[in-house]
Design a protein that fits this description.
about 550 residues, mainly alpha, 25 helices, ST7, TPR-like_helical_dom_sf, transmembrane, membrane
Length: about 550
């Protein structure tokens, strides 16, 4: 251990002194060049170079500066495109990934220590679950909704990454908990992995031919082949009947997969009833499902229930559900936080006036509503722009990232109508939501009611959301240095090209004056060195 400690100290000392060693070496090289200027005939070389440059016509300098401006402009366009698409500078990314290892830099492998608690001690930041992708509780039907959007617009609303996650979910949820895999289960495992929708549908029909009671195959047909919600509901009912018959004949040890399948089918049937206007029936189905399977809280069925209750305007029931799930020990979501804010805003928003509030101050109820809005905005700052229709909505993805833009799209897509129904709620949100950012002076460094906002949401959201959607970024990133540098270089060289073309003689005089001023300190430094050192020393050093 003693030897290892000395070795670490030696390495740290070498890395610390490397910068100074390089500076000394560079100074020695400059000194040697100056000393050996006579044997190397540097003066003659500089004279001939200056004569050559003086013989060049102004057209050459116009072409030189114009080409520099064109090249820097092309670099600027590429850098801007890369920044808009990936959120970072290409030059900076290449420099960090390739040059830093060569220079001995080490990237930090942990963010612990960057975030401090109030007493100054390091506060560990959660890195495993903060960027975990979750199944969207309110995801749409592919055949009846996503495909219809594609037929009308010609755009794909789902990314391959999102659909691949769904395939993995279906494989794990429907076929992963059985000890004896049947032939139709093997076919369905391959069906979920198929990239082509028609291939998936053909595989589902193949599984039904093997076993007419294959519930997973009917689920796939309901999700992908059915072009209407009514047709999807019919297929889900067929899947439910088949699943119950299969469950009755199965050994109890091997029914875990079938229970998962039945829960999924009942949930989708409740969503079909909600979409077809049978909202009370949907609410009853969801309550029964939550009562029958209370341990499946990770499926977030309560978010489906909250949305249906808001549609019924059963605000007392909504408050009862929030009282159970808006607990400090349970994971939060945009639905929980913003629904709580909506209920408190609804109580005061009808009579709320910014002018009156500024004169008399906020009442207790209004203060509670504003604090609830600030809490919701801190959890997910992307939602207000969609609720206030400052950004256009798209179809929500099948998976969401909590606190990310994908969750904001999914929430606003289903809950915007509920905010509009509460008179004045959107006005109160518009007047107060930006005040959240005054409570959090630096979001990536410090949180107020939640953990600091994760920095990985942008990358994950770009994978989940389609390319035609402009991903919301928080906090707003500043332009990278290299974009500003190339923009300045392009403008400067273009201006030089124009001035050289219009005023060639004047620019020649200006350039000569500029370089003479630039090299004046070097000449002064050389004269001082010659006066300081004896001439015999320079003579002996030159002879060596």
């Amino acid at each position: 251990f003693f030897e290892i400690g000395h070795l670490d100290k030696l390495k740290s000392w070498l890395s610390w002194s490397w910068t100074y060693i390089c500076a000394v070496w560079f100074a020695m090289v400059l000194t040697m060049i100056y000393v050996l200027r006579s044997p190397l005939k540097l003066q003659d070389t500089l004279t001939s170079a200056s004569v050559f440059l003086n013989t060049l016509t102004p057209k050459f300098y116009v072409a030189l500066t114009g080409t520099s401006s064109l090249i820097s402009g092309l670099i600027l366009i590429f850098e801007w495109w890369y920044f808009r698409k990936y959120g970072t500078s290409f030059i900076e990314q290449v420099s960090v990934s390739h040059l830093r290892p060569l220079l001995g830099g080490v990237e930090s492998s942990s963010t612990t220590g960057l975030f401090s608690s109030v007493n100054g001690e390091a506060e560990p930041r959660p890195s495993v679950s903060e960027c975990k992708v979750w199944r969207n509780p309110l995801n749409l039907f592919r055949g009846a909704e996503y495909s219809r959007y594609t037929w009308v617009t010609g755009k794909e609303p789902l990314t391959y990454y999102d659909m691949n996650l769904s395939a993995q979910d279906h494989q794990t949820f429907f076929t992963g908990d059985t000890q004896q895999i049947k032939a139709e289960d093997t076919v369905m495992q391959k069906a979920w992995r198929e990239r082509n929708p028609q291939a998936r549908i053909r595989a589902a029909y193949q599984a039904i031919e093997m076993n007419h009671e294959c519930a997973a195959a009917y689920v796939l047909l309901a999700e992908e082949e059915a072009t209407t919600i009514t047709e999807a509901e019919r297929l889900f009912k067929q899947a439910l009947r088949s699943g119950k018959r299969e469950q009755r004949v199965q050994d109890p040890v091997t029914t875990g997969k079938d229970i998962n399948l039945l829960v999924y089918i009942k949930r989708r049937l409740a969503m079909c009833a909600r979409k077809l206007g049978r909202i009370k029936e949907a609410v009853k189905m969801m309550r029964d499902l939550m009562k029958e399977f209370p341990l499946l809280g990770m499926l977030n069925i309560h978010e489906n229930l909250l949305e249906a209750l808001l549609e019924l305007q059963a605000y007392a029931d909504v408050q009862a559900v929030l009282a159970k799930y808006d607990d400090i020990s349970l994971p939060k979501s945009a639905t929980i936080c913003y629904t709580s804010a909506l209920l408190k805003a609804r109580a005061v928003s009808e009579k709320f006036s910014p002018e009156a509030a500024s004169r008399r101050g906020l009442s207790t109820a209004e203060m509670n509503a504003v604090e609830a809005i600030h809490r919701a905005v801190e959890f997910n700052p992307h939602v207000p722009k969609y609720l206030l229709e400052m950004k256009s909505l798209i179809l929500p993805p099948e998976h969401i990232l909590k606190r990310g833009d994908s969750e904001a799209v999914a929430y606003a897509f289903f809950h915007l109508q509920h905010w509009k129904r509460a008179e004045g709620a959107l006005n109160l949100l518009h007047c107060t939501w930006e005040g959240t950012f005054r409570i959090i002076p630096y979001p990536l460094e410090k949180g107020h009611l939640f953990y600091p906002y994760p920095g990985c949401t942008e990358t994950a959201d770009r994978e989940l959301l389609p390319t035609f959607h402009e991903v919301s970024v928080y906090p707003k990133k500043e332009l990278p240095f290299f974009i500003l540098f190339t923009a300045g270089l392009c403008s400067f060289t273009a201006m030089l090209a124009m001035l050289t073309h219009q005023f060639p003689e004047l620019m020649g005089v200006f350039v000569k004056a500029f370089f003479s001023t630039l090299f004046t300190p070097l000449g002064f430094f050389a004269d001082k060195m010659e006066s300081f050192m004896p001439s015999s020393f320079w003579h002996q050093l030159t002879r060596i």
